[in-house]
Amino acid sequence: MRPRCYTALHPFLKMRTTLRKLLGIGLVSGVLLTLFYWWVPGDDSTVDIGTRHGDTIEKLLEKTYKDILSSYPDISYHIKDNVAGHLALNMCVCETEKETIRNRLPYSNLLFPRVWAQNLQLAFLGNNEDPEGVKSRRSQEYNGFRRRTSTPSDVLIVAEANSPLQYPTQGVEVRPLKTIIIPGLGLKENPRSRHMVNLSAELGVFDVAATVDEVTVIGAGEKSMVISSPLLLSLNRQLQFVTYTNTLFHPSTADTVQFATDRHRSVFTIKVRHGIIPKLYNSRSSGEYNISALVTIATKTLLRYDKLQELIDSIREFYPTVTIVVADDNQHPRPVTGPHVEHYIMPFGKGWFAGRNLAVSQVSTKYVLWVDDDFFFTASTNLEKMVDILEKTTLDLVAGGVREVTGYTATFRHTISVDEGGDEGDCLHIRKGYHHAIEGFPNCVVADAVINFFMGRTDKVRQVGFDPRMARRGHLEFFIDGLGSLHIGSCSDVIVNHASKIRLPWTKTDNDKAYEKFRYSLTTDERKASDEVYYFKNRFKCMSAN
Amino acid sequence: MRPRCYTALHPFLKMRTTLRKLLGIGLVSGVLLTLFYWWVPGDDSTVDIGTRHGDTIEKLLEKTYKDILSSYPDISYHIKDNVAGHLALNMCVCETEKETIRNRLPYSNLLFPRVWAQNLQLAFLGNNEDPEGVKSRRSQEYNGFRRRTSTPSDVLIVAEANSPLQYPTQGVEVRPLKTIIIPGLGLKENPRSRHMVNLSAELGVFDVAATVDEVTVIGAGEKSMVISSPLLLSLNRQLQFVTYTNTLFHPSTADTVQFATDRHRSVFTIKVRHGIIPKLYNSRSSGEYNISALVTIATKTLLRYDKLQELIDSIREFYPTVTIVVADDNQHPRPVTGPHVEHYIMPFGKGWFAGRNLAVSQVSTKYVLWVDDDFFFTASTNLEKMVDILEKTTLDLVAGGVREVTGYTATFRHTISVDEGGDEGDCLHIRKGYHHAIEGFPNCVVADAVINFFMGRTDKVRQVGFDPRMARRGHLEFFIDGLGSLHIGSCSDVIVNHASKIRLPWTKTDNDKAYEKFRYSLTTDERKASDEVYYFKNRFKCMSAN
Asked: What are the counts of helices (DSSP H) followed by strands (DSSP E) for chain A?
């Protein structure tokens, strides 16, 4: 009786040999291909990415910090008001400037512009049918934002005094999943029968790149490693070879390392991140600045083709080959042509910031120059000066001046600051003025917001972006969104002219009237949209300005 | 004889009193107005922003670090190859995988995809008429980039052992031009006749928020302050009130503080920066996800209006009101209409990434979904799943799978890493695969590059951007530009279908032929442009992939 398997295989065994070989190869190939489809290299571990890492360490550090601060309760002190008054209390309040005699003088508003404050919370929630819902959603969105942006490398760590531990407190970095030697580890204590240190981490493992005689290493390759030796010098030599390998992947985070003896503990962080990938531009220019290779001019147009054409003609007088990008959301678009002119047609009325965002999204040169469609160039519109300051300093953006037909040149320089305000949101402060002058560039200063005639590094301007939610109006919103990421300058000697806005009613064309109606009549919805941007999007409770 | 001034003023004095008053007021007003035009609040100091701050401290720290590392030369060690081999040497080399027996097996490329490497330096400079000029320009651009992006808070600092100083090593921040109390300062030494510490900074000044009896403070309000007392406890109480005020404006920098006694010195940094301003979206949805309020679909089209219409129709079957943004660079654009469809017309052939950048620049919802114009939705194209993972984790972008007509679903998961390579540039490594699975989301993993069907946080996608310099082709470039800033996932259970690419030659329409000719025939110029992006823009010398 043949075995069952033999009976099953019988037809196969009866086939000719070559056919069998072919079928065999086919079967093996099929298996291999199936394996290939399903097998993709990857770590089989599962990671929870819904929560932040490092919470345990943070609580530990908080407790240590509280202990430090609560010492010396018996020693009294006398507050120094002029200093204590400047301390940020994390609870900013929304206050208009009080009435004073100074405010009541004639022309006082010119010399001492009064500060007004708007309580955004009242303004936005007051008109809303579901204020509690809005507050709750904003809080939720903000928590998600904090979860994504906070990092263990911002947590307060205090170094213990009189600790025998030597360790790096800053500057240790490793690229994700890579290995480094941890620099600067050491133990400086009196001789003992056995010197011992331990290291522990959360997102990686330790090892040693070299071993030293008479030193014991336990836990090499793990998250917790102990090094000990009767000889202090040998232990310290060993500590020069301690390595850290990041094993839990994250593109940008930090691991908190504890380095301790039996009686002392130190804590430091290792940043886990890629290096910043540069975005460099090959401008192919040497000697004088080749404006066409370095700069693209960007603008948005609506209902003012005549002024736009004047702008383009005036640019061509001085910069015949510079590329001009035009974003156009007219209802009935007309061709805008010419060499080096790029015309983009948008849905009707899509909006001001949408148009600005579109225009800068198309720029392929190192710098982008923003102009309004009713500007025009003159001999004072010296773009080389703007390029020069951007090439030679750390500025990301530099504005010029806009000269009105009256001769008055506006620079709209403002400084911006934000005070923390707790759960209700922060307080935004906008003041006329600038921070300081720039050495080597007379007529130039540093500020936080400037006028709408500026040249910026294309990638930095795009990174901040012009929020398409700002449909009719918007200017400061760009600078608020850019706070902290843009280093901004303003030079009063690079001037563009502004086509006259001063028109007697009977001289206005139909175009002018249509434009004014569209541009300057803010509906209630649009005012609400503006409040929403400050209250919800940027999470302010108060805004003050002068 | 009347004085000359009287003679000069005579006509004025003869005028009537009221007229005199009016003229007087006019004169004063004129002076005030002139003053107003010229006086804008601002610090009169001039600051050099062409160079980095903190160079002096860095040199000092470098020297300290060198001393630490050169100790113990007499103690020998034995290298542990398997660990030392993983250390980043900062001098990556460009190597194709060696020929081995494994590589020669049939199907070896399926099971063990071979790694190829391209020496970008040779490829790009080899075809260039001015290689030295290119290298020099790239080096110059890179130096400018480093000057703008490096900060004193990345410099290596090592804490001294057995120092009586207690101080914060991490987590101290102040907003520009504001004041904080420096937490955690202390001195723990044996009794002496006089205990003394000094503090010094470069970008700000010290003071005390409160004074303590029997403690002398010299230099309050200056960059260098000395605190001394015969009583150690009082000195420590005083140290609890030390304040730091940033005085040299910069939107994002760090000040290096030295805190020392006569025999010991510690160094720590205070970050000077604005808080990150959030960009929150009020999606007005609760309970189920309102896709139209949360997501905008973006695509770019060229020569495939028929496929585009099929895509739009298929979307409408499942998401009737979601906004669809279409960027169109056809030579002869045709209307693309319908409710919630936004059509943008670009200059002919402006390009693939330019179109992608345009489309995402117009999105005003929290998330943006990228689709190619030849995709179509089915019941498996479950956008709610994508929104769910983005809402609940720290992912910035999640891709799905693209199903071909054969039934094969591609996810194109890759990991990316960069090794430092010195002055010649870095080495870019791209490998098929992913990092790890995601807890709570079966079928989802974390990777660094994914397929072209993904949903992302609009602001994060825009911050990375699609470089308009990539005209014909481009995919990985987006993920390379995003390395370190995007946390990327891939879920194989959200699927979009791909209209068939498999066409027998005689069934191709004129459209298909025109598209293939345009899309797939890379000219020499375009190949050079691609090399330029990797070699110059991102500063790589080598690229390897499998």
From this structure: 17, 30
Of A40, A83, A419, the CB nearest to B433: A40
Task: Give pLDDT, residue B311.
Answer: 97
How far does the CA of residue A1 sit from the closest CA of chain B (Å)?
Answer: 41
Residue A414 pLDDT > 80: yes
DSSP string, A359-381: HHHT--SSEEEE--TTEE--TT-
Lowest mean pLDDT among A56-70, A317-331, B160-174, B334-348: A56-70
Domain A292-545 CATH class label: alpha beta
Chain-wide mean pLDDT for chain A?
A: 87
Residues A83-119: pLDDT tens digits?
A: 888 886 667 888 766 555 655 666 666 666 678 888 8
pLDDT of residue B379: 97
Per-residue model confidence (pLDDT) at position A91: 78
A334 touches chain B (CB under 8 A): no
Q: Do A275 and B420 touch (CB under 8 A)?
A: yes
Please give the helix or strand (H or E) that residue B488 lies within, else none: strand B488-498
Q: Do B361 and A268 touch (CB under 8 A)?
A: no
ipTM surpasses 0.90: no
In chain A, the percentage of residues whose pLDDT exceeds 70 is 81
* CB of B404 less than 8 A from some CB of A: no
Q: Specify whether the CB–CB gap between A435 and A487 falls below 8 A.
A: no
Token representation of residue B478: 């987006």
Contact B243 A149 (CB under 8 A): no
Name which of B181, B280, B483 is nearest A138 (Cβ-Cβ). Answer: B280
pTM score, whole prediction: 0.88
Residue A190 contacts B where some CB pair is shorter than 8 Å: no
The pair of structure tokens assigned to B121 is 């330096």
Beta bridge partners of B399: B454, B490
CB A449 within 8 A of CB A477: no
Q: What is the DSSP string of B323-334?
A: EEEEEE--SS--
> Is the per-residue pLDDT at A181 higher than 90?
yes
Specify the pLDDT at position A536: 92
* pLDDT score of A254 more than 90: yes
Q: Which of A195, A468, A244 shows the shortest CA–CA distance to A357? A: A468
Q: Min CA distance, B529 vs chain A (Å)? A: 11
Residues in chain A: 546
Q: ∠ CA(A232), CA(A237), CA(A239), 5° rounding?
A: 95
Pairing of strands A375-376, B375-376: unpaired
Which residues 219-258 of B are in CB contact (within 8 Å) with A? 233-234, 236-238, 240-241, 243, 245, 249-252
Q: Residue A241's closest CA among B402, B80, B272, B224?
A: B80
Of 2.170.150, 2.60.120, 2.60.40, 1.10.3470, the CATH number of B55-85+152-273 is: 2.60.40
Domain ranges of chain A: 55-85+152-273, 292-545
Choose the closest CB to A481 out of B279, B432, B539.
Answer: B279
Quick check: do A55-85+152-273 and A292-545 share a fold? no
**What angle, 0 to 180 degrees and rounded to 10, lies between the N-to-C axes of helices A352-361 and B352-361?**
160
pLDDT of residue A31: 74
Measured between CA atoms, how close is A456 to chain B, in angstroms? Answer: 14
Q: Note the Cα B371 to chain centre separation in Å.
A: 24
| Cβ-defined contact of B45 to A183 (cutoff 8 Å) | no
pLDDT tens digits along B305-332: 999 999 999 999 999 999 999 999 999 9
Cβ contacts (< 8 Å) between B186 and chain A: which residues? Answer: 68, 161
Q: How far is CA B156 from CA A173, A351, B64, B65, B151, in A?
A: 10, 48, 10, 8, 11
**Residue B73 pLDDT:** 75
Question: Which residues 290-329 of B have a C-beta within 8 angstroms of A?
Answer: none
